[in-house]
User: Fold these one by one.
Assistant:
Number 1:
Amino acid sequence: MNRRTFLKIFGASTALAAMPGCSTTEAKAAKKPKGPMTLRTNPTTGDKVSILGYGCMRLPKIDGSDEYDQDEVNRQVDYAMKSGVNYYDTSPRYCEGKSEAIMGKALSRHPRDSYFIATKLSNFDPSTWSYEESVKMFEDSLKNLQTDYIDYLLLHSVGGDKQDMGLDSMGLFNTRFIDNGVLDFLKKERDGGRIRNLGFSYHGDVKIFDHLLKMHDDGEVHWDFVQIQLNYLDWNNAKKSNDRNTDAEYLYNELAKRNIPSVIMEPLLGGRLAKVDNHVLGQMKQRRPDDTPAAWAFRFAATPPQVLCVLSGMTKMENIEENVATYSSLEPLTDDENVFLEKIAQHILDYPSIPCTECKYCMPCPFGVDIPTIFAHYNKALLDGNVVESPDSPNYEKAKRTFLVGYDRKVEPRRQADHCIGCGGCLSDCAQHIQIPTELHKIDAYVDHLKRN
Ligand code: SF4
Ligand code: SF4
């Protein structure tokens, strides 16, 4: 790769690395709760829902093992319950299919009316598209969660496509939920009480979002809530921040004018807004010395009044403690702070990382590529200032060593980016619409550059 190609590919990244003192800067929580957990009211059922929702997609594992740590999950759930967190969001797909059962064990130790369970009809895979398989998935959710009703049931990840099967987003939605009678089944279950609220999580093509709201307007289905991605980067920069075609501001406002509450996912954009460079951190600390970048992002996500709940995929107790403190009680953003965060968003967009949330929907790759771990390593290196352009840079050797040693340590050689053959099989699975093979090839080119220079 010549210097020109290198600059074209890595220009923005290296600009970040060149910033003085640029580093990963997640600060330790310093705050304590100042009041009770903020609650929001569901206009349909009157549920008083905690503004902090417990996302169950990254449950803790036993140190040094691939086993999930049920005792630690129990401990975290007990702390969350005691702190007023009453919304728990899982899916048959989370944690390699184990999340619901783990959460069922943890939650069933508490009175059933003290918490709300959200789970999803996650029938992404063609083998689960039939009526029978989808209904089985719903019944299995009840069993795994040790309950006879679901408080919040979502059609999972509406808006993607399946180009390899000739299905655009509308075709895929109809196949998964309409033609097979699954939506009718779910509506009947809501009428019968085994589902208390019916909604969908939106990931993608806005024409599906508009279509589902038209169904609502036409009385074909009443959506009790909708889960959307909202954070200060996506509020009105979605196209630039993650190649989505819809700003969160549009999504939220369309729901709000219909009085449909929003449940928020990705308030930190896969952790990207918790790890800001020193320039951003300094500005944030100047305004609110005790707040971490994550606290800013969580306050932003919860400020719109028709947000019912903000989900956080919490793995460590300290994450839960910090989020509880931020929302006990919520201090909504002021107008001035909103303007401040818009400026911060512009700065972050000037120095792009890969917007991978490590959701693992793209896995497994048939060629063994460990996509999320590769992207996570690259993003961390970027934030730590270890993606460096020129061998003439003073920290080139150190950055090169850190990048390459870390790469081999975190990603087995047979699972690294050079094993991507560019088949594109993962593209339609990525909820963030990342051009996965293109990004992998860029990273591989960068690794190659480091090895040659
Ligand atoms: S494009 Fe690359 S990463 Fe994606 S499925 Fe194909 S080989 Fe795997
Ligand atoms: S590349 Fe996309 S689908 Fe894969 S883990 Fe990242 S965000 Fe999820």
Number 2:
Amino acid sequence: MAVAPIPFVDLAAQRKRLEGRVEAAIQRVVQSGAYIMGPEVGELERQLAAHAGVRHVITCANGTQALELVLRAWGIGQGDAVFVPAFTFAATGEAPAWLGATPVFCDVEDVTFNLDPQSLEAAIDLAERQGLKPKAVIPVDLFGVPADYEAINRIAGRHGLKVLQDAAQSYGAIRAGKRAGAHADAAATSFYPAKPLGCYGDGGAMFTDDDELAAQLRSLRFHGMGGGGQYDNVRVGTTGRLDTIQAAVLLEKLAILDDEQGARQRVADGYARGLSNLAITPRVPDGVASAWAQYTLRVDDRDAIKAELAANGVPTMIYYPKALADQAAFAGAPVSPTGIEVSRRLTGEVLSLPMHPYLEEMVQARVIEEVKGALLKRAG
Ligand SMILES: Cc1ncc(COP(=O)(O)O)c(C=O)c1O
């Protein structure tokens, strides 16, 4: 009997829940004509700042640009070292490289898949020996779990590094009582549609408590605009604004985000109950609420399991099949003296299951049964 296909992320279910509110919000912007920097943009920035618990949120065109603009505002470029995890999406390494700085790859922790503070320490030492100037570190909150900012901020403080939180996958998560976006000198997030808070295209935002940095970022995203307005260019900037339509979409989605994250937590709990005795399921550190951008297992014989699940109608994804340091784009970039063994091992073991707030219990039960079947076959 044919069964309905299972979506990996179900944006259609979210649209249905919002009952036309997103479409109506888009329509209002279309009719207003305020397509660039309309009132929804400022309203979204105010609401995000209140939600994340930071003084300033500056929206921009995408999450990669959010990383780039912060690094640029900090004056990072040629000869500077920026420390990044080896197990992440390309953007984390691209941002420093795009500015002419050197990304220095560090390993990640075995449990959280996030930047390993010890690997960072060793990488700082290496960068200094190579004549680079250690300037910043970009911890990534992979799959929704904020990195170990207590340890990373301490190391950064000792070495005079700026810390830029890559919260592209963690918006809404909490660590030590603070929301993602509020753990470092500045943070960047992405509103790519499949992210925990996603728009209907590309979008991003920067977060900081630093008034001066915020003013610089506002200027940089709008052609280096000065106090004299749009045609007063006091620095070299770019076209980095978030479209008003996307801001209107995000305002509707932000209103239901906390509720959605409760639903994601229930889905994660269901997977843990069903699978933790058969596979390595995610372990979230004490005091952390994950945003559950992904629910990622570690399994042996991963590719065969993925193929079997696909044949049985269960979609899965591999984030990421290659360590970023091993990608052609980053050939020759320095790697921490600790090596990146954990990152490389993870690329062969990770398998992300369908995860979204609208995953019904019955459907999840089917996913769990299929995954169990595939794992048991190999265990026995
Ligand atoms: C960890 C990480 N950093 C940065 C980005 C970049 O975001 P964007 O696609 O909006 O440029 C993404 C997502 O795509 C990401 O997953």
